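Q: What does the assembly look like in three dimensions?
Context provided by user:
Components: two
Sequences:
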Amino acid sequence: MTTYATDYIKPELMACCGSREIKDNDLVIVGTGFPTMSANIAKHHHAPNAIMMQESGVIDAQPGRTALSVGDPCLNPGAAMIGGLVEIMGMFLQAGHVDVGFLSGSQVDKYGNINTTVIGDYENPTSRLPGSGGANPIGSMARKTLIIALHDKRRLAEKVDFITTPGYLDGPGAREKWGLPANTGPEVLITNKAVLRFDPETCEAYLASFHPGHTADEIVEATPWDLKVAADVHETEPPTVEEIRIIREVLDPARMISVYEKKGYV
Amino acid sequence: MKRTNVIADESAALDVITDGMTIALGGFITAQHATGLIRGLARRRVKDLTVIGSVSSSLEVDFLISCGCIKKLVTAYVGAESAAPMGPFFKQAAENDSIQIWECDEIIIMAMLQATMAGIPFYPVRGGLGTDLPQLNPDLVPFKDPIRNENLLAVPAMKIDVALTHASIADCYGNVQYDGNPYADEMIQKAADQTITSVEKIVPPEFIRRDPFKTVYTADMVVRMPFGAHPFSSQGAYIEDTAHLNEYVMAAYMATKGDDVSWETYRKRYIDEPEDHLSYLEQVGVKSLLSLHEY
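A: Here is the predicted structure of the complete assembly.
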């Protein structure tokens, strides 16, 4: 019988939600932070043959510490292969070989479009964001995209101010119309309150599960669009004792993940 | 043909870059930027540069902005991830519209470099389709490909005067090797009219020839610059100086909030007053520099 942990923090729960989306043998492209944590939990837990790639060109890294950025050389020693950026982004991704991409969004809308460029009008911005980095081709071409975001009416939106990385754009058929590969797109939106999935008919994010301590009503209220609720909406499965052991003993003894609590992931 | 020695001193290398040029910067986020050379450009207040931050840049672009060197910036990202989600001066300049930004993704810069190095007008990508990027940059052109009738985005080539890269070693003929990932440096070298590379160490040609598979390109000018990527990492030599990155970010952030004191101190101490790279290293200090080891 599965035993669940009782003393976990929200970022650990969210990392486990990400991990559960990764299957054995998946080719996963990750950045730093949540994505790496989730993919590593998956590798130690249920997907030992999943392979992680960083956009910098590193394949199947086994770093001895938490990387500062995707360009951190600690990712190099022990990796299976190191190519260049153009191998990962230009070839693996564009040719459609990547199963799972994992992105975080400063602003995410109901179709899973991600804005990391600017809040407000581009020419007259309220706030400048960091830019695309390598997020766009990941969201454009990975088979499944997992998205992490904060759940409030500022971070989630009916429509993003700027589409940096395409989700389902303006709804059903839009990705195909623009020429993005078939059967790709956002799979799940993991927030600090809930797990949202995307309706295959409408392409809209709906509430699939609420995290322990939250309610469906509260989440509908905190979402800036008319959030549909799954008929079988339920509580998100908490982290298991084993998942928490992997996080704290194997992956992150220094508890770096707790910085996400300061960033609002509570 | 008699080959020439391409080893140059720092000031001769910096003399190559003049106001209004287009330069491409190598490295990737917190790794392997030619920071020593770029700091020299900031110190000289070279003006009106078009800078391609290849393919995601970091705080070296941020201090170039602060020193008024950049007119137009082609970049996918300016930041240091965990150390700084984004460059403070970049954020300020974007919000004030004080520099032109050619907005793009890493894959779009790579396509730009692929077009440029092949000498063709554009290179096609799938990335960027459906987004707001083509509206901002009218020279990113969605088109139907004539072979399979697929939608693609045409990314224009761009003339690059000089590439600035940092590598592990080179010989006196400019044959450059990396103890690790060259990121997109090979592409920018091939796309640029000329390349200036700072290296941790200059080695005899025989040393390069022991392992020619490791040679990534031949630079037009090589500058010996130990710790030349500092405060970023240089693979096989040192890791990022996170304390220094934090010092920079705090000072820059405060400056963008109207409190210039720490930034003035930082800029004087690390950018303006050191007359060359070695004087900069003296300011950083032996103890800090030699603590930047992985194991």
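Follow-up: Chain A has one domain: 10-262.
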